[in-house]
Design goal:
- It is a single chain.
- The chain is mostly helical.
- The chain is built from eight helices and two strands, in the order ααααβααβαα.
- The chain has a two-stranded antiparallel sheet.
- The termini are far apart.
Amino acid sequence: MTSDPGEVPTSYSRKVGERLRAIRRQKRLSLQEVEAASEQEFKASVLGAYERGERAISVPRLQRLARFYNVPVDQLLPPDEGPGFAGAERAPIGAAEAAVTIDLRRLENLSGPEAEMLNRYLTMIQVQRQDFNGRMLTIRREDLRAIACILGVGVDHATGRLDDLGLSLSA
C-alpha cells in the first residue's frame, strides 16, 4: 500500500494510461498534435506521463480530456474489476458482416430530428465498440434494422436513404 492517499496504484494508472493512449491513437493524433489542438491545455509531456501511468489524472482534467476527444468520460477509464465484476470487458468488436459505412463528418452537418436520432444511435454504437475515430463507422446488418426505423424506411431501403442523405461511403 502507498502512504500518500492521492497516489494511485501503479497498475490502475497504467490501465488508465492505456485507455488514454488507445483513444488518442483512434483519433489519429500525436501527443504534439493534442498539445497544439488543445492550445497547450494538454502538454505532450504531461499527457505522455498519463499514458505511461507515471502520473495520475484528476477527474476534472479527465472530463476536459474526454470533451477534447469528444468521447464519454467513462470510456477513458478501464473496466471495473472490483467486487461484483462479472468479467464483461469492453473489447472492441470486429466489423463482421458490414452492410454500409457511414461518414460521421457529413452527419454532423445535417440537422433535424432524423439526424439527431441517427447521431444518438451511432454514438451508442461507437461507445459499445470503443470506436472513436470520429470519421466513419461501419454498420452491421443487425444495426441497419434500427437505422431503417430511425429513417422511416424499410430495411431494404435504408442504404438508399443513407445514400440520399450523403452519409454512405459504401458502393
